[in-house]
Design brief:
- The protein contains 15 helices and five strands.
- With about 350 residues, the protein is mainly alpha-helical.
- Helix 8 runs antiparallel to helix 11 and helix 12 crosses helix 13.
Length: about 350
């Protein structure tokens, strides 16, 4: 099992410099790892077995398995009842062609590719931000995140930072707004993917998790498992071939889909994960809108980040900073040692006082 997940563990390593936030990391780290791991899992036959096994008379089983996997299997949605008495499995029973509704299941061929494609989409905002950010925060940190730095070296690097801020004051708004755009993309992506999976599963995904929860609360005799409806474990397959005289013969087969035992659990987890992620992303956007629109909130957040610094120094800096300046300074506070950050804030406040008095 560790072989399956070993190839994605590299995505979990911590970055030496933080250029985003926790909700952002849930998208490009946690979600990407989850989706790639699931994609690898559904292709690992050593844990699941063959993806399909069919039973039919007079047709070689390997031929039937391949045929039904390629051309899809089907169920009869209105054939439900007691298993072993009324039906073999939900949706598996005799039916009248042209009268009973037939539901074909082809999606299971594409699950691994779809999950991998979704992982790529979740990484796109991170890729854009990393490209736009260009290593600016890492360059500005100048190894000040290391607590063991000589006083002379520390003084030189703080002076460089203060000079950078005063020189580039009010020119960093575009930098900040590109990050905010990536946060919007994260939210749009996760909501869009919920509807994409709903399309992929023929309109079943948006209510899938809630129906599974409702199913567990029902009385046993009233239960109709929604997982068996969306991901049937036993289906039907019809094979046609020519007989000895050229007449078309029809062979009705029963197919077992062991892969759907895994698929149903994967999509239950993804339903809850995507709903939670969408809610957190929406709250993050509301917080970001409040930060952009509220100078007082930015002052409070900067005080919390520079908790060792006097409030008067923070107020001087906040008064002179636009949203981009505030964002860069706040990001530095995540990466620089708190004691060094306190000294940086003091030097920056003194520099701004000097500019105000000129």
């Amino acid at each position: 099992m560790f072989d399956v997940f070993g190839s994605v563990k590299g995505l979990l390593k911590l970055d030496s410099v933080c250029i985003d936030n926790n909700v952002f990391r849930l998208h490009y780290k946690a979600t990407v790892v989850i989706l790639i791991a699931f994609s690898l899992l559904v292709t690992s036959r050593q844990y699941i077995g063959d993806p399909i096994d069919c039973i039919v008379d007079d047709i070689p089983l390997n031929v039937m398995d391949t045929y039904c996997w390629i051309y899809s299997t089907f169920t009869i949605p209105n054939r439900v009842g007691r298993i072993g008495t009324d039906v073999v499995q939900p949706g598996v029973a005799s039916h009248i062609e042209g009268t009973d509704e037939v539901k074909y299941h082809k999606y299971y061929q594409w699950v691994c590719f779809t999950l991998f494609f979704q992982a790529i989409l979740f990484y796109v905002p991170r890729y854009l931000w990393k490209s736009w950010e260009g290593g600016r925060i890492k360059m500005l940190v100048l190894d000040l995140n290391c607590p063991v730095v000589s006083d002379e070296c520390k003084a030189d690097r703080k002076k460089l930072l203060v000079d950078y801020f005063t020189t580039n004051m009010h020119t960093q708004n575009f930098y900040a707004f590109r990050f905010f755009l990536c946060e919007i993309l994260n939210f749009v992506n996760v909501v869009g993917q919920i509807y994409f999976m709903d399309f992929f599963l023929d309109g079943e995904f948006t209510t899938y998790g809630s129906e599974v929860v409702r199913f567990t609360e029902m009385e046993p005799e009233d239960r109709v498992d929604p997982m068996s409806r969306v991901f049937p474990k036993v289906t039907k397959c019809t094979f046609h071939k020519y007989g000895a005289s050229g007449t078309i013969q029809k062979f009705d087969g029963l197919c077992v889909l062991p892969l759907n035992i895994v698929n149903e659990k994967i999509y239950v987890f993804l339903w809850f994960w995507f709903i939670i992620l969408a809610v957190l992303s929406g709250l993050s956007l509301a917080y970001r809108a409040a930060v952009v629109a509220g100078p007082k909130l930015r002052l409070i957040l900067l005080r919390a980040r520079a908790r060792l610094s006097p409030h008067t120094q923070i107020e001087i800096i906040a008064r002179n900073c636009q949203i981009g300046d505030w964002f860069v300074l706040y990001q530095l506070g995540k990466n620089i040692d708190p004691l060094v950050y306190k000294e940086l804030v003091a030097d920056l406040a003194d520099k701004m006082i000097g500019k105000e008095s000129v």
